């Protein structure tokens, strides 16, 4: 159990900068998810915490203690790898017991501790098997047991669910979250799956191109993205982002001009271009423009049913916008309607920096 | 011709390939079987005329009594030669394997300056035959050789093992590097995070996973030491089976069937290890790394 502080972490591999000046504080007992596309540096950041990599510059503190230059074995972290990295030549029991045998723990304690974690993860029946005799889900439990058996102060997960099939993933996700809450071990979880991140995290740290873009609770990340990247990465489908020109009185998307409430115009006064964003489920398709909303005429391009709801893709000239509507509403391809978004549901971003506008 | 599964060769082709392979092996098999037959005969078997050939165990008896082929009367300690041959072979095998696995691991897994250079030099060294290097190796021997004859005897064992192993090291390092390259980094990282040192990781995690490769270079090293004659003859005070047979061949009048028995004895480990390592090398990919 420990808090983690990452101070100004930069990591370079030769000429490639994998991480660039990352600052992050993780509280004791917190479940934090590092979210980003592949190649964003999220796994590198986790390996830095584990001690597998050393930062090019910056400091790492566990509970205020500088561990930047400590080797992995002196950090007391448990790590669950994406491919689980079980030792193929050892039985499940020996796999789980391996960290303890290295510490020269006596036989009885090893027996007891291994059986403890094995029963917690419901793999007691598998202890005498070899890893290749197990299913993916079972192998993963073994990997988690091996990480837990040494009673680490920090648990690290490197996309642990990505090798499991979709149905199993959701079940394991719930169990992982529960397990972490029960054990209260500070956990860092790396994933590229935004839904997984939203479901499991206390806080999410979004990383792109080696830079920390935003850190916040799942609600903050989802509803108050600080950057167009976060808005465009999180959510399924992700938020719509539209480049809008502004001449002081009216807004234009490509050549399509539309009106907006005064309240919105005041917020963006003085700007020539902005990025307008909104969540697909916040868009409404009507034959008129509602009050306190931005409305623009659109044409239905395609309708995809998802069972409970449907994704309606509409076009504003060449720009495609996705709107999530309940399946009860009926739309025809080619139909012309007004797309309305309440101004409280709009996200405003600076056109040049892509950062959120600080206007309320 | 009907098309079968991709991995199933058609029967006619299989037979065709087998015939070619057998045709190429016939001379070698003939030579070996003549040698083995001669070791059980009163004269060398050199053709298919068996009318004058009588089969007997006498050659083997004489061999183990330590009679040498030239005079037939003088006795030499054949068991001592067997033991020195085994010492040299085992020594070369162990040194080659230790150096090969450790440096193979380092070159595969640790980034250090001159890594590429070391690899290239190894390849160069491998390209040179041992007999070319022997002058330089001999000078080093003279430089370090102890003066007391008793000490020299032990030193010569040590020296011949290290010198002969040095010739095997490049190939084994390359081979081991290849094996270590195949192992996923995550398994090693996992061991490091679990609390193992680099050396422990090598010994407890990596080595068991590449066991087939380790056994293979162990066998290659053993056979190299067992078969060597040039280095043994130049440096070793004691005789090995190879130098024993060679010194007997120098004589004008030698009882050849006795030498055939010695040669057959000398061949046994080679044949045994080649057959067993063949199976092993096939297994490397089938059962080496499972995940």
TrEMBL record, chain A:
Residues 4-234 form the ABC transporter domain. One of its GO terms (molecular function) is ABC-type transporter activity. One of its GO terms (cellular component) is ATP-binding cassette (ABC) transporter complex, substrate-binding subunit-containing. Transmembrane segments: none annotated. InterPro entries: AAA+_ATPase, ABC_transporter-like_ATP-bd, ABC_transporter-like_CS, ABC_transpr_MalK-like, ABC_transpr_MalK/UgpC-like, Mo/tungstate-bd_C_term_dom, NA-bd_OB-fold, P-loop_NTPase. One of its GO terms (biological process) is carbohydrate transport. Keywords: ATP-binding, Cell membrane, Membrane, Nucleotide-binding, Translocase, Transport. SUPFAM superfamilies: MOP-like, P-loop containing nucleoside triphosphate hydrolases. This is ABC transporter ATP-binding protein.
């Amino acid at each position: 159990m420990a808090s983690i502080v990452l101070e100004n972490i930069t990591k370079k591999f030769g000429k490639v900068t994998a991480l660039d000046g990352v600052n992050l504080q993780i509280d004791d007992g917190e479940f934090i998810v590092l979210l980003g596309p592949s190649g964003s540096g999220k796994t590198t950041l986790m390996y830095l915490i584990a001690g597998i990599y050393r930062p090019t510059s910056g400091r790492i503190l566990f509970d205020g203690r500088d561990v930047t230059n400590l080797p992995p074995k002196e950090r007391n972290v448990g790590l669950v790898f994406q491919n689980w990295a079980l030792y193929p030549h050892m039985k499940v029991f020996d796999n789980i017991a391996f960290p303890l045998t290295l510490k020269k723990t006596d036989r009885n304690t090893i027996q007891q501790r291994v059986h403890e974690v094995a029963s917690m993860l419901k793999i007691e029946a598998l202890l005498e098997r070899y890893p290749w005799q197990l299913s993916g889900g079972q192998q993963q439990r073994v990997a988690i047991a091996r990480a837990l058996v040494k009673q680490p102060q920090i648990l690290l997960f490197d996309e642990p669910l990505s090798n499991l099939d979709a149905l199993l993933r959701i079940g394991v996700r719930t169990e992982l979250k529960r397990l972490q809450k029960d054990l209260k071990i500070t956990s860092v979880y790396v994933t590229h799956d935004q839904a997984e991140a939203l479901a499991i995290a206390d806080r999410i740290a979004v990383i792109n191109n080696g830079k920390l873009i935003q850190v916040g609770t799942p609600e903050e990340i989802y509803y108050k993205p600080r950057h167009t990247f976060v808005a465009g990465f999180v959510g399924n489908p992700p938020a719509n982002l539209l480049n809008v020109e502004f001449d002081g009185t009216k807004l234009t998307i490509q050549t399509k001009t539309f009106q907006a409430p005064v309240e919105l115009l005041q917020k963006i006064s003085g700007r020539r271009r902005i990025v307008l964003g909104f969540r697909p489920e916040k868009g409404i398709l009507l034959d008129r423009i509602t009050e306190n909303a931005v409305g623009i005429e659109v044409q239905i391009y395609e309708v995809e049913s998802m069972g409970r709801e449907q994704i309606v893709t509409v076009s504003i000239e060449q720009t495609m916008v996705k709107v999530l509507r309940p399946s009860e509403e009926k739309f025809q391809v080619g139909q012309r309607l007004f797309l309305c978004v309440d101004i409280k549901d709009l996200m405003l971003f600076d056109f040049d920096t892509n950062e959120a506008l600080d206007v309320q | 011709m009907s098309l079968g599964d991709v991995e199933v060769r058609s029967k006619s082709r299989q037979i065709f390939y087998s015939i070619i392979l057998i045709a190429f092996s016939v001379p070698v098999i003939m030579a070996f079987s003549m040698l083995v037959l001669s070791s059980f005969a009163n004269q060398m078997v050199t053709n298919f005329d068996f009318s004058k050939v009588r089969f007997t165990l006498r050659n083997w008896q004489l061999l183990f009594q330590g009679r040498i082929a030239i005079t037939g009367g003088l006795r030499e300690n054949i068991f001592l030669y067997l033991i020195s041959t085994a010492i040299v072979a085992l020594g070369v095998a162990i040194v080659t394997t230790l150096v090969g696995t450790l440096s193979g691991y380092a070159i595969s897994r640790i980034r250090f300056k001159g890594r590429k250079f070391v690899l290239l030099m190894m390849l160069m060294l491998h390209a040179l035959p041992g007999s070319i290097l022997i002058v330089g190796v001999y000078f080093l021997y003279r430089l370090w050789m102890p003066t007391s004859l008793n000490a020299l005897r032990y030193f010569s064992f040590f020296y011949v093992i290290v010198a002969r192993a040095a010739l095997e090291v490049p190939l084994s390092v390359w081979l081991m590097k290849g094996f270590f390259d195949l192992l996923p980094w995550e398994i090693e990282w996992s061991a490091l995070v679990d609390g193992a040192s680099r050396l422990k990781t090598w010994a407890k995690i990596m080595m068991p996973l590449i066991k087939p490769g380790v056994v293979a270079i162990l066998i290659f090293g053993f056979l190299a030491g067992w078969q060597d004659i040039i280095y043994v003859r130049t440096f070793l005070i004691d005789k090995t089976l190879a130098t024993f047979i060679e010194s007997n061949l120098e004589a004008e009048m030698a009882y050849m069937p006795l030498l055939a028995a010695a040669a057959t004895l000398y061949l046994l480990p080679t044949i045994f290890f080649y057959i067993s390592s063949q199976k092993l090398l096939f297994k490397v990919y089938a059962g080496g790394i499972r995940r």
